[in-house]
Amino acid sequence: MEPLSTLQIALRILGQFLPVWIALVVLFAASIRFKRNLGLYGKLFDSVIGMIGLGLVMFWVFTGIFAAMDMIITHGPLDQLSGMKNEPPGTPLPDPEDGAYPWYLLGGDNLARDVFSRMVKGAWIVVQIAPLATLFAFMVGITLGLPAGYYGGRLDTVLSFLANLILAFPVILLFYLLVTPEIVATGVPQYMAVVLFIFPLVFFGVLINSRYRSQPRRNMTVLAIVLIPLVLAYLSLINAQGTRIDFWPLDLFDVPGGILVVFVSVVFVNAPTVFRIVRGLAMDIKTRDYVAAAQTRGEGPWYIMLWEILPNARGPLIVDFCLRIGYTTILLGTLGFFGLGLPPESPDWGSTINEGRKLLSIYLHPALPPAFALLSLVLGLNLLADGLREESLRD
Amino acid sequence: MGSFILRRVGVMLLTALCLTFIVFCLTNLYPNLEKLAKTQGNFRMSDEDVARWLDNNGYGGPMLVKYGEWLGALPGWTRETEDGMDGRCIRAAEDPTEAPRFCGIIQGYWGYSTVFKEEVGGIVAKRLGLTGILMFWVLVLMVPSALLIGVLAGMREGSVTDRTLSTFSIITTATPEYVSGVIFIAVFTSSTVGLRWFKGTATSAMENPTFENFFLPVLTISLYGMGYIARMTRASMAEVMTAQYIRTARLKGVSFPNIVVKHALRNALIAPFTVIMLQVPWLLNGVVIVETLFNYKGFGWTLVQAAGNNDIELLLGVSVVSVIVVLLTQLISDIGYVYLNPRIRIS
Fold first, then answer.
1. Of the N and C termini of chain A, which has fewer Cβ atoms inside 10 Å?
2. Does residue B171 surpass a pLDDT of 70?
3. Is the pLDDT of residue B347 over 60?
């Protein structure tokens, strides 16, 4: 078979992404149709920048989800086909098996794997880790930042000192200290997981308890509904067979070792910044009249923090959430770039860029697709944050 | 002002102590020490051999004591052997009989690198010098262009210039160094594209930095920080341009360039100053990535080597320096902000 021309490659790649295009069109059509009923999200469709940002972000989110279901990809991300090492984009397979996709659309890498499929699979790793890690960082930051800002005083001094301590670490040094096999063997990251992952439990517990405190029966029911699954998830998350923490018999799922460490260190790096933002917002909002009104009504401090201050701080927090997912994506790439945490054959973008850069002066095609993928996702998140900021300032 | 600076310096010292202690603990965990013993001794050591080796070399005591010795606040360990006295300070000193009791960071003894087979102090100083050159050019390129972009964009909010420059700064903030560096190397140095304007490695720039071998690393680091500073400058400039005194100046008939240069700029540049200083720690990250990518053997490259090869004393030295750099920039930015901003300075 003949190698594909550039135009054919482009068309075939667009064709491979067909499920993503369909999903995007459906999402945009539905959102624009109902945009008046969708609050801040609906207003996003009034700004061009916001729409471009959302489009880019959702493109990669859908790509990740479909890639997890083994759609879009043309070959297995770890399949090595002989004769395809470092071949340029559009090279046909030398002797294709029946039913196999007959080309490497973006060429082969140094180990004769399909660059296109690896890039698509890499999206799934980012889409899995980045938003969730950011969410955890926000839970930690909010749970500690609200009381620091609301109470002030000694509590604030101690917590701010700790946050500044972590912020003064150069991120890469921290990664090198936390994500080496020797440190993982001592269980330090796992103990950190024990501490960090308890914050969502505390957050939801306090959130519900402060709201329904006066109705004990309802309080108990809601608490049980929310907390029991969370506690189970927490225990299965921190418990891993054959490591330092191995006591819980009902281990529902296991997070692969590398991923947990990466997750913990990313949360650890992000949480202090969120803490500072939330603390600042809380200090600002606690002087408002409605907080004084709630205090006069005799509401408890946690009710005021979580049900009066937090909802009113949502605008800046949502914007920062988008930016922070982008930053987390960059951090994940950095980890991959230095070969830390994730296994070396993993198709995540940082590791692929790192592998591709070694032969960059001769072969461009293995390194560039993941680089542009990462660039477009982070750009999309930044544009989305910009659009959200503009729209939330408008009212 | 005096007591403010004093308090800030006190907090800074406390932070530095805490951070170095954390780094010390993390690098001196038992698996690291075991690995060290096996690389220094031999790989077939039994567990007892490892324990004995560690005891003989002063790695045995409690963590706090070892930290004190390393810092120079506690006397170094000593031990009687068959051929006389052995000890931390005796190994460091040229003449064993005149060895001081204290030898640590405070006394200027930084330890010995197992990878480079040199004194850590010397390595750190040399590498820091190389990175200093890199950082200098980064700042020379980044700060003026970022301020220019920010001021031009914020001067007339919502104009075409503003839209174009803001898009540019968003794109640069979305491009981490390892992405832009790879793209630059691909476009400007590879034989495939054929431009070959620059060199893909900066190894030769260590002796002889020229435009050809040094511009790409400098550009790569500056671009990522540039967008952020530019956006902050833009926001600050846009805010100043809506202020009352600018309107007064306009009504008086002052020309637009005059308003921008004489009235707006001075107030608009206070906020970016802090941002620029706080950007230095981020540059440190960029430096590690870019030095690895372009094979420029400076401070960041040393960090990767030390961390990757379990070179405990070198890693500690590198950490101390980077932590101090970060804390110093924070201190300067705090003091500078107070000094520059009359509203805070007077109250």
1. C
2. yes
3. no
| Dihedral class, residue B161 (left if φ above 0, else alpha if ψ from -120 to 50, else beta) | alpha
Question: Contact at 8 Å (CB) between A227 and A204?
Answer: yes
CA distance B81 to B87: 10
Is the minimum CB–CB distance between A144 and chain B shorter than 8 Å? no
Structure letter (DSSP) for residue A2: P
Query: Is the minimum CB–CB distance between A188 and chain B shorter than 8 Å?
Result: yes
Q: To probe the interface with A, which of B38, B182, B294 has the most A CB atoms within 10 Å?
A: B182
CB atoms A185 and B171 under 8 Å: no
State the best of A161, A337, A352, A376 to mutate against chain B, taking most chain B CBs within 10 Å. Answer: A337
**Residue where one domain finishes, among candidates A301, A326, A351:** A326
pLDDT value of position A307: 92
Check: CB of residue A365 under 8 Å from CB of residue A313: no
A357·B293 Cβ contact <8 A: yes
Do residues B30 and B59 touch, judged by C-beta distance below 8 A? no
Categorize the per-residue pLDDT at A51 as very low, low, confident or very high, splitting at 50, 70 and 90. Answer: very high
Domain membership flag for residue A1:
no
- For chain B, the domains span 2-98, 120-340
Amino acid identity of B105? I
Which chain A residues are closer than 8 Å to B322 by Cβ? 170, 173
pLDDT tens digit string along A309-357? 999 988 889 999 999 999 999 999 999 999 887 888 888 999 999 988 8
- In angstroms, the CA A346 to CA A121 distance is 9
Tally of CB atoms within 10 A around B123: 24
- Measure A337 CA to nearest chain B CA, in Å: 8
Cα gap A24→A374, rounded to integer Å: 19
CB-nearest to B186 from A170, A364, A381 is: A364
Q: Do B185 and A361 touch (CB under 8 A)?
A: yes
Indicate the SS3 state at residue B79: strand
Based on the fold, state whether residues A212 and A342 are members of the same structural domain: no
From A350, which residue of chain B is nearest by alpha-carbon distance? B178
| Domain boundaries B120-340, corresponding CATH code | 1.10.3720.10
B62-117 pLDDT, tens digit per residue, is 888 888 888 887 777 777 777 667 777 777 666 766 677 778 888 878 888 888 88
Task: Report the amino acid identity of residue A357.
Answer: R
Residue A177's domain comprises: 124-326
H or E stretch at B69: helix B63-71
Q: What is the mean pLDDT of residues A133-146?
A: 94
Residue B209 has φ and ψ, to the nearest 5°, of -70, 125
Contact B31 A186 (CB under 8 A): yes
Total domains present in chain A: 2
Span between the terminal Cα atoms of chain A, in Å: 60
A236 lies in the same domain as A226: yes
Chain A touched by B15 (CB under 8 Å) = yes
DSSP readout, A259-279? HHHHHHHHHHHHHHHHHHHHH
- Same domain (yes/no): A346, A316: no
Q: Distance (Å, rounded) from C-alpha A50 to C-alpha A386?
A: 7
